[in-house]
Write a structure and sequence with these properties.
The protein folds into two domains: 122 residues, NAD(P)-binding Rossmann-like Domain (Rossmann fold); 194 residues, Dihydrodipicolinate Reductase, domain 2, CATH 3.30.360. The chain has 372 residues and is α/β, with parallel strands linked by helices. It is built from eleven helices and 17 strands. Helix 1 packs across helix 10, helix 4 packs parallel to helix 5 and helix 8 crosses helix 11.
């Protein structure tokens, strides 16, 4: 890696996720510099720059995009800005790593995928759980036929958002959808990655808390996005699926302590993945069917990190460190190296089409075919 020319990264949106995964991830890569922290809040940009020794800050993302020294940008703003900033960055020749959900709706995502495809640049959507060692191993087992023919996919993603917490995710004009796009898009990406394309969905989305108390005040604010959702899916290959997501699960953690669970049932066995155990799977090799018999299987070393990554897997908490591989994989792709299974804007669009179909199904109270 030492021989590659220096790549300079601009971070647009220097809040929670930028600090949690993006900046530390890039700072582990050789010959890569996080050159500027941009945030509409000068205070946030400066705090992030101070925390990570980033040499420059700005409150204007257009300054980052116009800077000829910047090779690539990370877009980690609220969802309403993903599309306009991505399109401007691609037009200026910058490689883009955009947070999920890719856009506010499928129409935005469609345009982003089209422009990205035509640009010849690297475009990645931050479906960061593809980098979990157990998920990478599960993909290997599924593709190798070790579970036989997959028949059913079951996924749950829960966390606890305190009732007094209100932010941009609770507002439709800033977020598009709520928990469905926020947590659900990750599960949809898993499903597509492991099983295939979703054909049709039926489900509900709810806002269990339509108003939230603003912390430290006696004021309530309207919440216009969903905070709980569930849906059934039929995949094009005949597999069935059940999905559930919620921000209302006290005791189920938040961020790196989220409850994230996937179970795959195949003709030759079952596999269970749990985010809190990123270095193991629970597997039933098929026989005997009658017993509750799932065996804990450690993930082989070959799947512990992204190919070529020199990251020390013991250096960080097990359910945090894998996230840094996303920055590494993005850099590898820019350098024309290994990029198989790196989720791109097409994957972002495909997940968004399912999100939109679930919203339509919930509102119409019927099955909806996913557009494509
Ligand atoms: N991949 C994941 O697992 C994951 C996890 C968390 C968040 N996210 C996504 O990351 C994005 C950001 O989420 P977050 O939790 O970091 O939110 P956040 O509110 O902590 O950070 C967003 C930042 O964007 C800044 N911002 C707003 N408008 C801007 C503008 N015009 N120019 C520059 N900066 C601007 C805000 O001031 C804020 O600091 C969202 O799309 C979210 O869905 C993804």
């Amino acid at each position: 890696m030492e021989d590659y020319p220096l790549l300079k990264i601009g971070i647009i949106g220097s809040g929670g996720i930028a600090r949690f995964i993006h900046v530390p991830g890039f700072q582990l890569c050789s010959n890569v510099e996080v050159a500027v922290a941009c945030d509409s809040s000068a205070e946030t940009a400066e705090a992030t720059a101070r925390a990570f020794n980033i040499p420059a800050t700005t409150t204007d993302y257009r300054e980052v995009i116009a800077n000829p020294d910047i090779d690539a940008v990370v877009i980690a703003t609220p969802n309403n800005l993903h599309q306009p900033i991505s399109l401007e960055a691609l037009a200026a020749g910058k490689h883009v790593l955009c947070e999920k959900p890719i856009g506010m709706n499928a129409a935005e995502a469609e345009e982003m995928a089209l422009v990205a495809r035509q640009s010849g640049l690297v475009h990645v959507v931050s479906f960061v759980y593809r980098f979990v060692p157990a998920l990478r191993y599960l993909k290997h087992l599924v593709d190798g036929g070790h579970l036989g023919e997959i028949r059913h996919f079951r996924a749950t993603y829960l966390c606890a958002v305190p009732d007094i917490w209100i932010g941009w995710r609770n507002h439709k004009e800033l977020a598009g959808s709520g928990v469905l796009g926020d947590l659900g898009s990750h599960l949809i990406d898993f499903a597509r990655h492991l099983v295939g394309e979703v054909d049709a969905v039926s489900g509900w989305v709810k806002t269990l808390l339509p108003q939230r108390l603003v912390a430290g005040t006696d004021r309530y604010k309207e919440c216009t996005t969903d905070d709980t959702a569930a849906f059934l899916a039929e995949f094009r290959n005949g597999v069935t699926g059940v999905f559930e997501v919620s921000w209302h699960a006290p005791g189920r953690g938040g961020r790196d302590t989220d409850f994230q669970y996937i179970e795959l049932n195949g003709s030759k066995g079952t596999a269970v993945y749990h985010l809190q155990e990123p270095f193991q799977l629970r597997l039933c090799p098929g026989e005997p069917y009658s017993k509750d018999q799932l065996f804990t299987v450690p993930v082989p070393r070959a799947f512990h990190k992204w190919p070529g990554s020199s990251r020390d897997v013991r250096a960080d908490a097990p359910n945090v460190g894998f996230r840094y591989d996303q920055a590494f994989a993005f850099i590898q792709a820019i350098r024309g190296l290994e990029s198989a299974h790196l989720p791109d804007f097409e994957d972002g669009l495909a997940a968004q089409l399912v999100v939109d179909a679930v919203l339509e199904a919930a509102s119409a109270r019927r099955w909806v075919t996913v557009k494509r």
